[in-house]
Amino acid sequence: MVKGTYKRSLFWTVFTKTAPNRAKCNFCGKECSYIGGTTSNLARHLRSAHPDIKLSPPQYRESEATTLIITAQTSSDGSCIATIEPFEVTTKSEPPDDCEDATLLNGSQNQSPEGVKKKRSACWSIFRKLDENRVLCRHCGHTLSAPKGATSNLNRHLKSKHQNLYSSLQIDDIKKKKAVKFKQSFSRGQSKQRLKTSASHLLVPQEAEMPEDIKKFIHETREKEGFVPNAYHALSHRPNEMRAFLAYYDTVMEDRVGGHLTRCDKEMIFIAVSSFNKCKYFIISHSGLLRLHSHNKLLADQIAANWESADIDERQRSILGFALKVTKCEALMENDFNDLANHGLDSEDAWDIGSIVSICSLSNRMAYLTNMTPNEEFYSLGRS
Predict the structure, then answer these.
(1) I need a labelling partner for 190 at 20 to 30 A (CA). Which of 35, 88, 119, 142 fits?
(2) Neighbouring C-beta atoms of residue 43, cutoff 10 Å
(3) What backbone torsions phi and psi does residue 83 show, to the nearest 5 degrees?
(4) Which of 319, 337, 325 has its CA nearest to residue 264?
């Protein structure tokens, strides 16, 4: 074994050995191969991936020299194979534990003796510690002072000599701080939160933050039905509009004195119109309600698929035909009203049909706006 003193290539200020014949780029993390200490692959990587990096010769001191270990072996065919491995004599390149800068570095944190967490500076991904008060810039090889791990000199060096790299670190720092801030606010809990998977794209207030009458309505619904439809949570984003919506919905869907539309008729209209508008939430929810009121497990699915081929009578077919013309904004003729009259439905019933179409279309659009997803309970409602 032969030992000799050798000044390392500047590329080793940018790359770190990870395994025999493998080195990792300190900037992008990509591993490159090198054989026998040659740095051709490392140079090619810098030229192609980091063209802005210009290596300048560092001012090495004698104490910073590197010792090479050269091992010679004879192969089976008699040829000589020499393996060259660097033997580091400098101190281990680790950032100081008492780093004063409050910038994030890969989320790592140190615990000070007083129990207060301090975050490592991103500078330490570019500088290597030589001793207690000196560091080496991996980018250009300059030696800087960093007493007790202070990073002021390091930041000044980056800002003056490596502006692009400094800007990149600043951007990364801002992103990481935003991520930490979001995580902290999420863990503390907010008065409003996204419930995209269950209720709405938009912000939905927690029940404790709802107005008393809305909170009471939600509580009574849960006690009565065993669950709260996601539509109620979504609409609670605007309490006044929710009150108006519920009042209109209840008025339209309840039996009107002198009216001839049954609750099943109204649920069929809701399903047929929602199917035309391709609104999954109200197709699923009102299909469950139709199964409950009609005691028919098949009819709702038939209407949702194609009301014109569903197993319904001529009266119901006339109602749905009229409702779909209103939905499509098609001109209504006298024959349309006469068709309803032939099945015992007067002009007031036609108004009821139009009102149901209107509240249904409004509901469909709000479901699209908020991305409502049907409660699982609706799928099984009325099937047992």
Answers:
(1) 119
(2) 15
(3) -110, 125
(4) 319
